[in-house]
Amino acid sequence: MASDVSPGEALQVYIPPTLRGRADALAALSAAARRRDAMAAAADHDSGYLEDLTIAYLLTRGRQHASVSDHTIRAYQTGVRRLLLEWDQENLLHPSVDAGDRYMGSLSVGLAPSTCSSRLAAAAALYGALNWARATTAQPFDGVKAPVNRTP
């Protein structure tokens, strides 16, 4: 059987177009491939890949597993994008000691406490995903608390 790939041409891994399909594809990667890709995405602040990795983590390893709602998925994607915009100069694999607290401080200016909580959950999930991929052991959001809604 003849191959459609010429010598020296790399095969491309098929990534399904649906979000859940991409999450399944990431979860099915070997541990070494997931680590390599996650480290490269973190170094490049690759929002698309890091969003997909976070969703793959939520669907595979999160408390709710496959029952994560589409609304939650969109909220986490937004949260990951916001973190990457805010941390454009931060090393994602080795964030500074107070990076999580500084991020929460910047969010709490002008955003509702519930929005801050959602963004904090997304940021923590990103680091759960990066740990799952063995790209880092950092947990910059451990102990970081969202502001409390004081409205009676």
Strand-helix topology:
Layout: H1 19-28, H2 31-44, H3 47-61, H4 70-86, H5 99-107, H6 113-132
Helix pairs in contact: 1-3, 3-4, 3-6, 4-6
Based on the model shown, name its key terms.
152 residues; mainly alpha; globular
Description:
This protein has six helices and no strands. The protein has 152 residues and is an all-alpha fold. Helix 3 crosses helix 6 (113-132) and helix 4 (70-86) crosses helix 6. It starts with 18 loop residues before the first helix and ends in a 20-residue tail after the last helix. Mean pLDDT is 86; it is low at 10-15.
Brief account:
It is built from 6 helices and no strands. The chain has helices spanning 19-28, 31-44, 47-61, 70-86, 99-107, 113-132.
The biggest beta sheet reads:
none
Radius of gyration: 17 Å
Q: What is the SS-derived class? A: mainly alpha
Oligomer: single chain
The helical percent reads 55-70%
Q: Give the tally of β-strands.
A: 0
Q: Segments where pLDDT lies below 50 for 5+ residues?
A: 10-15
Cα(first) to Cα(last) distance is 72 Å
Shape, principal axes of CA atoms: globular
Give the H and E element order. Answer: HHHHHH
Mean pLDDT: 86
The number of helical segments is 6
What proportion of the residues form beta strands (DSSP E)?
A: under 5%
